[in-house]
Each structure stands twice: as structure tokens, then as C-alpha cells.
Amino acid sequence: MKKIGITGTIASGKTTVSILLRKMGFSVFDCDGYSRILYQQTNPCYEKVVAYLGESILDAFGEIDRKKVADIIFHDEEKRQGLNAIVHPAVIEGMNRFFSHHADEDLVFAEVPLLYEAGMESCFDEILILACPKEEAVRRMMEDRGYTEEEALARYQTMIHHENDVGAHTTVLYNDSTIQALYEKVLAYVTEKGISE
User: What is the pLDDT of residue 187?
Assistant: First the structure.
């Protein structure tokens, strides 16, 4: 089994690539989706997060409001790092269980938005970085997520851009055109990985 991490800046197309891979029959672990499970009241991480950030992050039903959490950590680097120290180990544990369940597959993927920031490079055999022009990322955030231009730019500016950190086990896919063009790039990528095994 070859474990491949999918990462890239905000609105670069990570989730779209994950969807395309699943349609091709590959297994993909969604780290962001898994973190939502960790925020549920039945999960041990819930109490740790509430104790760390305070009850102001809860909604009327006692659930963690992810938007409130984002508003805090977006403006407080220390809080962001503290939250990551709680959540990231649990996400890695869940991801490793996922890999174990799919150990008989040739290629297994994980979508990890903060792969480098979390120091998760060693979890993977290869890393696939999605990249797109700044203007395209801002447009996608405004159209798909309802951000104002100012909000989109602010979020883009806080991201660390890793598309220049290309090593021997790293591939950059530029998602700067159509879904069909991206599909063809992803298909070429997995075909090459299959042939190279």
C-alpha cells in the first residue's frame, strides 16, 4: 500500500480531487470531516476543546460551533496552535486506523488541509499538492463559500503555500482550468502511480 496525502491552499481543489478519486474507486480519508466527529459531545476530544476554548464556542444545543472556533483561532495564533495540539493527534490516530482497514489496496489517500503545518509529512509515502492562482482561489471562496472579497483575501493570506516545496516524493497539480481538465490530471497521476508500483 502506498499512502498519499492530498494538501494545498484554501480553495485549491483538494475536496474536488478527493471526490474524483472516490469516483475512480480509491479510498480517501477526510481529515477535516473526521475532526467534525471529534467535536461531537460523545467524543473525548469534545470536553478538551471546550475546556481549552471556553463555553462561548457552544451553540444553543451545547454543540461546538465550528464558525465560533474559526473566529477565535483565525485571530489568535497561540489558541490555534493549542487547539491543533488537541485535535491533530486524534485525527492522525483515526487516519492510521483507516489506513489499516485499507491495507490491501495499492493506493490510499488522505485529504489533509494542514498536512505540513501539522508536521504530518512522515505519515505518507507521497504528497500531492493542489495549487491554483490567487485570483482563482479568491473567486472560488466568494462564489462557493459566500465570503466577501476582503474575507477571502484575508484567509488566502494566512495560508502557507507549499507548491514550491517540491521534493522527491511530492507532486504539484495545478487546478487552474475546468473540472474535466482536473479529472484528466488526476487520472494521469494515479495511472502513473499504478504503473510505477
Answer: 95
Is-contact 1 102, C-beta < 8 A? Answer: yes
The CA distance from 27 to 157, in Å, is: 31
**Residues 170, 23, 118: CA angle, nearest 5 degrees:** 35
Q: How far is CA 187 from CA 21, 25, 51, 141, in A?
A: 8, 11, 45, 26
- The full set of domains in the chain, from first to last, is 1-26+106-190 (3.40.50.300), 32-104 (3.40.50.300)
Q: Which three cell numbers stand for residue 12?
A: 485549491
Helices (DSSP H) in 1-148: which residue ranges? Answer: 14-23, 31-38, 44-53, 66-75, 77-101, 134-145
CA atoms within 13 A on the CB side of 193: 23
Of 58, 14, 53, the C-alpha closest to 32 is 14
- The span from the CA of 107 to the CA of 26, in Å, is 7
Encoded amino acid at 32, one letter:
D
Task: Please report which helix (H) or strand (E) contains residue 151, including its range.
Answer: helix 149-158
- What are 101-144's pLDDT values in tens digits? 999 999 999 999 889 888 899 999 999 999 888 888 778 878 88
d(CA 52, CA 158): 23
Cα(82)–Cα(153) distance, integer angstroms: 25
